[in-house]
């Protein structure tokens, strides 16, 4: 797919300092702005009225789903159709229309039933399928400007997927000048970031390098800001904590391995419950994994202080390596310790290294509980697969932020730019988020289920209750959708699931 | 890993003062050591270091170094981040174009897109917002208007030849001044010469508004637009409609820099031939002209100038301002043009090889002698600057120099001057 091989140059640079302190205060978050904006959009053509995306349905993602499926089906290698849409994607740049209402093939607005995600489980179809399908009424509310931008974006993605980088670059020059990440329209914001991510990819293609350069401090900072305004992280934390708590019932020597501990935001809450539980606090060892020893040490210090204040016996072992790159001797697991492995997956960087090694080490360690929270987004597959999946995913995510944060809210911008854009950039990069060209497992819970060494532990009703509590903290509650099924808990926005929490136990667990 | 750049850098002080600005960045955090005991300078201004290294590597044709630096810049840059990230992004684009020899194509595409999405409303909104938060353009307007009014005082028929791209935002205050003069209101003919394509499309609305405003002010007014010129050298007295009994003023706002370097003397001579009472020249303080044969020097000067400009934008606008974004994008086109396009492809003069006030003075002295700005005008400018955030100041030049400078954090950024035959 890509021209030439790529050179994997491992380099992480901590020299870049974070550029701003975000506004943490949750009370400063405004309420949903559902008013139709009559203001001229930032890049007007003929005084187009800029309409906000309707809050009732997630049409942007629906529409994207429909169009991309059609585009992919029409790729030259697979299809000899001569319909308008097909020929339009291959036309010379000057012919590509900017406003596409007339050239939009009616077939796309028909009775097509969109898939929501790239996962294959039947459960998905049942829970998330869109019974109404695509319809004109929904689409007409979409921002016209956003529509034309997304069309160009899709064409660009197709160009990249067939390795037509020159054409892609030209289209990206246009897109990156037209879409603004500060726009009222979520669609336009998404386009701005996707376009930039693809530009970045084109340059890396030309350079033949795919390795990332990461400023962990900035990333952690943005992660924390996101945690303050959106329930997804807390959902992950609290449901996992509950599962771990249950697994630690009546155990007095416990050990938690956090595969990517960052600032350890999750753990104080669990410490508190463990310290005050009926059978008394356990002795807790925590192995925190991450990218830099300096950051890990800092996290360890904070957690140790907290545990001390609670009167709980606590040990912290930092490992500044990836879980899939260590062997079992590096884990200071003692006889008689009950082990929990926790993994909150994200697309910011490759936290764990080679998947098969990660799996193998998990099997060897034989934990009593593995708490896994996955993004409902596949990191594997071809560029176009990742593009379609992530466009759907992040459109939904952007919609959820846009539902109650103002367009000019600097905190929202901080999250979108320093967190979500980072992920988008990584997912679209050469070699996917791992940036290593290795095969990534499509969905971890399927892999765990497929192995004899693990058995699923269904998320309890207590976990569900925890999740409900979290949702009550975040307006607008009606936008988020919590679903229990298949032993998992899933949190999404409107019709789209974004995160799935599950738990597993090892057959050989202590 | 990187040697400290040895290039001269004449703006050493403006980054380090605490800012009274929208960004809640605590600058002190930029000085703390990085994760692995990196020296304190590493955190701040990383873009400048990497970019200069890369420019040098391109000049030296050091392929592996070029690749490595472009990769780093590509990973770290973002047009939506902080100043360093923005500068990295736009200069990376130019460097990438240079390395792939696609500068001309890139510039053409960027310009086409900008023109397509340009319209009167957006242009007007943009410039008005910019003038609201920054004196970058209004400084020149106030100084020039002051000089023009004084030079044309008492004249009954005025003809102002306006060569600028600020969409006539300069003239309402002048019209007002004419209307409120003690003696008879003179007749004003305003001939606007438009060189940037992007502005041509909006001149119709502008002329309607100007005529309406003049009527409101009670100033007898005639408005003409001259566009479709390839370069200023093509202007003639007849084309401009200059007649004998008029008192002529020529107003050049960022106009001379659009003239190809070799054609500048001729254009100045042409101005002289119009017999003006006053010529006002306002330009941005940067030198892309004397460095045009030295890629690295030109690059460094370009970086210096745009760093000041971007930082000024960052502090003048809100963090999520679309107007700021559009101004930055405008810069990106200029940066690609200056750094990544070959000189021989320059047939439109849109390269904008800026020169400093001292350089323009040398040229203008061939045909004109300088006119100092009166105390009244200087007071007007000072009053104007008070309306903006702190950081802006006026600097009057030393003995042999002419004009007035607008300074941002003590860095001269805009130069205004007045001349007579």
TrEMBL record, chain A:
One of its GO terms (molecular function) is sequence-specific DNA binding. Keywords: Transcription, Transcription regulation. InterPro entries: TF_GRAS (IPR005202). Pfam families: GRAS. PROSITE patterns: GRAS (PS50985). One of its GO terms (biological process) is regulation of DNA-templated transcription. Residues 298-330 are annotated as: Leucine repeat II (LRII). Residues 223-288 are annotated as: VHIID. The keyword Transcription regulation applies. Residues 429-505 are annotated as: SAW. One of its GO terms (cellular component) is nucleus. A motif (VHIID) lies at residues 254-258. Belongs to the GRAS family. This is Protein SCARECROW. It comes from Gossypium hirsutum (Upland cotton).
From TrEMBL, chain B:
One of its GO terms (molecular function) is DNA-binding transcription factor activity. The gene is LOC107914650. Keywords: Transcription, Transcription regulation. Residues 1-42 are annotated as: Disordered. A motif (VHIID) lies at residues 158-162. GO terms for biological process: regulation of DNA-templated transcription. This is Protein SHORT-ROOT. InterPro entries: TF_GRAS. The keyword Transcription applies. GO terms for cellular component: nucleus. Residues 1-29 have a biased composition (Low complexity). PROSITE patterns: GRAS.
């Amino acid at each position: 797919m890509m021209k030439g091989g790529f050179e994997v140059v491992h380099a992480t640079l901590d020299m870049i300092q974070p550029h701003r302190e975000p506004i943490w205060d949750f009370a400063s978050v405004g309420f949903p702005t559902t008013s139709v904006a009559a203001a001229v959009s930032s890049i007007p053509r003929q005084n187009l009225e800029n309409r906000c995306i309707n809050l009732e349905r997630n049409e942007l993602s629906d529409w994207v789903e429909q169009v991309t499926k059609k585009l992919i089906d029409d790729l030259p290698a697979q299809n000899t159709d001569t319909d308008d849409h097909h020929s339009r994607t291959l036309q010379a740049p000057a012919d590509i229309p900017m406003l596409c209402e007339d050239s939009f093939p009616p077939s796309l607005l028909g009775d097509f039933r969109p898939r929501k995600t790239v996962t294959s489980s039947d459960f998905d179809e049942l829970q998330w399928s869109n019974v109404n399908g695509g319809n004109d009424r929904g689409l007409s509310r979409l921002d016209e400007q956003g529509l034309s931008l997304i069309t160009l974006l899709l064409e660009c993605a197709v160009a990249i997927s067939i390795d037509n980088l020159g054409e892609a670059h030209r289209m990206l020059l246009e897109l990156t000048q037209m879409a603004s990440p500060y726009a009222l329209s979520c669609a336009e914001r998404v386009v701005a970031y996707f376009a930039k991510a693809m530009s970045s990819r084109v340059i890396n293609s030309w350079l033949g390098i795919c390795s990332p350069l990461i400023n962990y401090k900035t990333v952690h900072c943005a992660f924390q800001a996101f945690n303050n305004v959106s329930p997804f992280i807390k959902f992950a934390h609290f449901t996992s904590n509950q599962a771990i708590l249950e697994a630690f019932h009546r155990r007095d020597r416990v050990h938690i391995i956090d595969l990517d501990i960052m600032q350890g935001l999750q753990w104080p809450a669990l410490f508190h419950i463990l310290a005050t539980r009926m059978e008394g606090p356990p002795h807790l060892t925590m192995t925190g994994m991450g990218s830099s020893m300096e950051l890990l040490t800092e996290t360890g210090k904070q957690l140790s202080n907290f545990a001390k204040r609670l009167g709980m016996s606590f040990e912290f072992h930092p490992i500044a390596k990836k879980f899939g790159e260590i062997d079992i001797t590096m884990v200071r697991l003692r006889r008689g310790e009950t082990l929990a492995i926790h993994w909150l997956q994200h697309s910011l960087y490759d936290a764990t290294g080679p998947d098969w090694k990660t799996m193998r080490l998990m099997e060897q360690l034989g934990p009593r509980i593995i708490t896994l929270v996955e993004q409902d987004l596949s990191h594997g597959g071809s560029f176009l697969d990742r593009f379609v999946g992530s466009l759907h995913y992040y459109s939904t995510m952007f919609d959820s932020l846009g539902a109650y944060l103002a367009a000019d809210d600097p905190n929202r911008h901080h999250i979108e730019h320093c967190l979500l854009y980072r992920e988008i950039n990584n997912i679209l990069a050469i070699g996917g988020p791992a940036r290593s060209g290795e095969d990534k497992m499509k969905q971890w819970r399927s892999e765990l289920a497929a192995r004899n060494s693990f058995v699923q532990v269904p998320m309890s009703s207590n976990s569900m209750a925890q999740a409900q509590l979290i949702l009550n903290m975040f307006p607008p509650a009606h936008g988020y959708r919590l679903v229990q099924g298949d032993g998992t808990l899933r949190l999404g926005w409107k019709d789209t699931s974004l995160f799935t929490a599950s738990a597993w136990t090892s057959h050989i667990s202590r | 890993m990187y040697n400290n750049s040895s290039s001269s850098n004449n703006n050493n002080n403006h980054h380090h003062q605490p800012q009274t600005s929208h960004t809640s960045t605590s600058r002190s955090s930029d000085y703390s050591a990085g994760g692995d005991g990196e020296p304190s300078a590493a955190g701040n201004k990383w873009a400048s270091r990497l970019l200069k290294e890369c420019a040098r590597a391109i000049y030296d044709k050091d392929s592996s170094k070029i690749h490595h630096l472009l990769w780093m810049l590509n990973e770290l840059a973002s047009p939506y981040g902080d100043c360093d990230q923005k500068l990295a992004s736009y200069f990376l684009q130019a460097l990438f174009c240079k390395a792939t020899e696609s500068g001309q194509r890139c510039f053409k595409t960027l310009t086409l897109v900008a023109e397509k999405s340009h319209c009167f409303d957006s242009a007007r909104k943009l410039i008005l917002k910019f003038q609201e938060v920054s004196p970058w353009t209004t400084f020149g307007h106030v100084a020039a208007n002051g000089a023009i009014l004084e030079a044309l005082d008492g004249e009954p028929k005025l003809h102002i030849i306006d060569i600028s791209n600020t969409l006539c935002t300069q003239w309402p205050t002048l019209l007002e001044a004419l209307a409120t003069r003690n003696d008879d209101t003179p007749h004003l003919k305003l001939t606007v010469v438009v060189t940037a394509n992007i502005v041509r499309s909006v001149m119709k609305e502008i002329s309607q508004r100007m005529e309406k405003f003049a009527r409101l002010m009670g100033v007898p007014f005639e408005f003409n637009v001259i566009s479709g010129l390839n370069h200023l050298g093509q202007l003639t007295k007849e084309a401009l409609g200059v007649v004998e009994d008029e008192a002529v003023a020529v107003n050049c706002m960022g106009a001379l820099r659009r003239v190809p370097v070799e054609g500048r003397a001729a254009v100045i001579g042409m101005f002289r031939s119009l017999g003006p009472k006053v010529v006002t020249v306002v330009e941005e303080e940067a030198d892309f002209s004397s460095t045009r044969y030295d890629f690295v020097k030109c690059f460094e000067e370009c970086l210096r100038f745009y760093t000041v400009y971007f930082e000024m934008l960052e502090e003048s606008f809100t963090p999520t301002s679309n107007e700021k974004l559009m101004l930055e994008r405008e810069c990106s086109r200029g940066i690609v043009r200056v750094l990544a396009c070959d000189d021989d492809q320059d047939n439109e003069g849109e390269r904008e090889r800026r020169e400093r006030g001292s350089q323009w003075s040398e040229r203008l002295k061939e045909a004109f002698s300088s006119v100092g700005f009166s105390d009244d005008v200087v007071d007007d400018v000072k009053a104007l600057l008070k309306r903006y955030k702190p950081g802006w100041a006026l600097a009057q030049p030393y003995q042999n120099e002419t004009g007035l400078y607008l300074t941002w954090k003590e860095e001269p950024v805009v130069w205004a001057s007045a001349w007579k035959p």
